[in-house]
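Weekly puzzle thread! Below is a chain. First person to post its structure in token form gets bragging rights.
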Amino acid sequence: MSGGFGGIGGGFAGSRAANTPFAGIPSELRERVDAVQADEPDHGEPDAAFSQDVGEGRPLTLRRMLAPRRAGLVGALALVVAEVVTMQAGPLLTQVGIDRGIRDGERGVLTAVALIYLATVVANWGFAWARGAWTARIGEDLLERLRLRVFSHLQRLSLPFYEREPAGRIMTRMTSDVEALTQLFHEGLVQFAVQGFIVVFVTGALFILDPFLAVVTLLGVVPTMAVLTVWFRGRSDAAYRVVRQRIQDVVAHLAENLAGVRVVAAFSRHRHNVVVHRNTVGVYQDANLRTAKLAARYSGASELIGIAGQAVILAVGGWRVVQGQLTIGQLSAFVLYLTQLFAPIQQLVQVYNAYQRGQSGLRELRELLLIGPTVPEYREATALPPIEGEVRFEGVTFAYGHAEPVLHDIDLRIAPGETIALVGPTGSGKSTMVKLLARFYDPSQGRVLLDGHDLRDVRLSSLRRQLGTVPQEAFLFAGSIRDNVAFARPQASDRQVRDACEAVGLTGLLERLPLGLDTPCHERGVSLSAGERQLLALARAFLARPRVLILDEATSNLDLSSEARIERALQVVLRDRTAIVIAHRLSTAMRADRVVVLHDGRIDEVGSHHELVEAEGRYAQLYSTWRIHADGDAA
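Winning reply:
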């Protein structure tokens, strides 16, 4: 796969000249990489669908996860039964060999028993292999569905969720929690079935061999084990929940420090961060040790009960042999089965631990999947037709959560093709207005309309296809420059991508790069300057051909020379498009058709640059202050 995000791009030796680190594959490794890629299986085009509809919202449970593979699970259970039967044939064959072969001196019986024993071992290996391969396929299919469901749900959630939820905790859902379910599907549930069938099979065999000894075993061992298991379940459930919470803290702290590694290095916070992470990992370690101690107590106690049970059976069974009520072969088979009874109980302890971890992960995923988008797409929503670009805010009031409103009774009409500049001090509500227009949030009161359509009544995809947004901080994905510019229109030709780059003044950059549009820009564009990243984000928005373009302080990271290039490009790109521009630098506001001055969440002034300067109001004061700073920077 070439040219896609995450694909393998060609190396280039001249990247240092473009102020970018080396990217790609060294020439001496190219042949090996090509050989590996040639052996990769072809899975065809990916088949994935996405919908904003959250569905019925039924809670995620283990039963609902397994339901789609009922037929496969029935086949797996049949293989488990066959595996257990062949595995547990040994004690019965031992009884026959002792009572009818050794005691009676029948060599033919001994030979037949030995051959049958060997055949059951081979058959057991075959059934175990088939069961392992079969259940692995089912488990991986279930996990694939789960990962896609969780990822799709994350794509569906609204912006407020990501603003309040740490990225590390979200990553934990897709890593640690899914990994816990992986262990449960691959080992836990299968072993539970295997060991459970062993317990049932062995219990039946014990009653067949000697009902009296079987009753003694069950009355002496089962009640004690039941009480012990109930105690362990109550303690371990709470302990494993704490473990899940602590691993969230570890991943969250790691993700935060990776994202802020430049700030950490700039302020030399390495040692402090190591101390904090050590304490975070230490708390996680304590939680794991607590669960390990609980499991050790349960395991040790159950093993002690098993040994005590065997001692009692040997004493009672020996007495019955002396009394002639039981043969040596029957007692030997009974003791062997008794050992087989306690072994799966020990295994079930480990299975229960995996089950608890899986249930804890499932609980966290269930809680995530029950979170609905705060800006939902209603089922009766219709597709937004091609728009002219008229924007209206009608009585819009908005507050983040339960805080005080940041916008108060906003009434504003923006004509198609008009460029509006939003200015005002920090916190006046400029960014909030464009977030409402992009429908990242819904107004607390009032309506936002596009060509007369209430944004709450249209499908989100049809709305955002006709909106272009350039945020204050440009985000670039790992991939080539072409991939990033064509992010909204992946079908665009190279000529169209290059034209968009030229429109924003990136011609010089592309000429300096050895691979041009195919140059990797790495994750988040770390190999490019802040200004170059912003220019690429502008090119991305321009190529999307939006009818309404939002520029949220898009020139804030550019120097004066780059800003001048952008201003010239905007005059061409914004022609016949509705544009809402947020800018602290009033050079952009000067070129807008109208300027909207916000103060304390209210519209204070509206008019052209010259009209507002002549009015000598709040905008005139902002402009005067900006001119003083601009003249100082120029000097």
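Puzzle host: Confirmed. Bonus trivia for everyone else. The chain has two domains: 62-369, 391-634.
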